[in-house]
Amino acid sequence: MAADWQKEYKRKFISAEEAAGMAKSGDTVVFTMGREAFAIGLAIAARKDELKNVTIIAPHPAYDFGWYDEGWQDSFKVKVAMPTATCQEALDAGRCDLIPLPIASGLIKEPDIVLTEVSPPDDNGLCSFGQSLWNKKTQIKEGKIKIAEVNKKLIRTYGDNFIHFSELDYFVEHVSAGQGMTVGSLAGRAKREPPAYLKDIAGYVSELIRDGDTIQIGVGRTTEPLVLLGMLDDKHDIGYHSEATPPGIITLVKKGIINGRLKTINTGKVTVTSLGGGSKEEMMWAANNPLFELVDVDYLEDVSVIAANDNMVAINNALLIQLDGTVSAESIGRRLMAAAGGQTAFVVGALMSKGGRSITVLPSTSRGFSRIVLLFEPGTVVTIPRNLTDYVVTEYGIAHLRQKTLRERAQELIAIAHPDFRAGLKKQASELF
After folding, report:
1. Which of 268, 242, 263 is nearest to 253 (CA)?
2. At what angle do helices 406-415 and 419-432 cross, to 10 degrees?
3. Which positions are annotated as active-site residues?
4. Structural domains present in the chain
5. C or N terminus of the chain, fewer CB within 10 Å?
6. Quick one: which H or E segment has residue 331?
7. pLDDT for 181-229, tens place per residue?
8. What are residue 300's phi and psi, to 5 degrees?
9. What is this structure's pTM?
10. Minimal CA–CA distance to 63: which of 117, 143, 120, 27?
11. What 3-state DSSP class applies to 422?
């Protein structure tokens, strides 16, 4: 009976302070991937002076609860999976630590408390996770105590983006944060006008995309603006299989440029694990729209699933690339600036795909230094090994490295480096090779 389950749902409501009171010193508290449950996070942070050695897992930090500051480390040991603007300073200073994720979503087993955010239940008792699914259902199943903050503004989507209220132990009323990740950025960075050179990069990437391709676009300052800069404007029958939706993707679905008509699997669907980076109007258009299917990240980033899409094109950001084709998208030296996310899986899957391609994009310089280098600084993380690098694009052109020798790779990359650095790179390459 509807009335019976609604009574049970209401009985599960507690205050944010009661939820926070369940955390004990030495516990592990996990926020699900995406935006953190804000009211409960604030209440836990308020217990700083009475809690000791609580491990906080915040996969993709959006809100600053205080525990990234100096002086909180005895109370909270914070671990993140993706660096964002919220935690970058703390990560640089060693006040929080990074968990390198495997290819899919595994994070931690049997945490003491799992915190998430859901919509109110529908007539069938099903709560939506809103615009962001990731691996929330898996994380919730792992938790010993499962608490959800109920946000009436969360959208509903098609796909596997729901959970029955009975699978959650307690509910807390949502409190608006008034802060958090900026609309238009997938990684929580401040929104800014894209530099002029990105228009050139968008044009070169467009040359490598064919009608009927299925594409993935990774998170990054270089990748995210490419759609708004016209990368897909003259294409037809594009498919989409990617973690999230950078600005402009939803509008291209609305226009019919992205329609998935020729996708080998999930035909006619936009297959993602999160809707993000779009305007409020785009989000509302995607809500309850059967064209969009939110799926678990373990399915989305399964290499065999990615490869099952014929003509799969992976488009991902890099921080640095060596002259042999080795790519880092995570650090410069020992400074961790990003996470691989699904990049490795999508590169492998695209190269396994029939007709597939992998495109790595990066500006030729940063703050007066070449991003194309002879060798990485010690400590630089390798995201894509050289034997998996396919196309590389800067504002100066396209380098195709697949099946090329080391010397040929160096020549290709030097040709798309900034002109100020080409002579020096050529000299270094001649000495090395």
Report:
1. 268
2. 170
3. 243
4. 2-173 (3.40.1080.10), 197-432 (3.40.1080.20)
5. N
6. strand 331-332
7. 344 455 555 567 889 999 999 999 999 999 999 999 999 999 999 999 9
8. -55, -40
9. 0.94
10. 117
11. helix
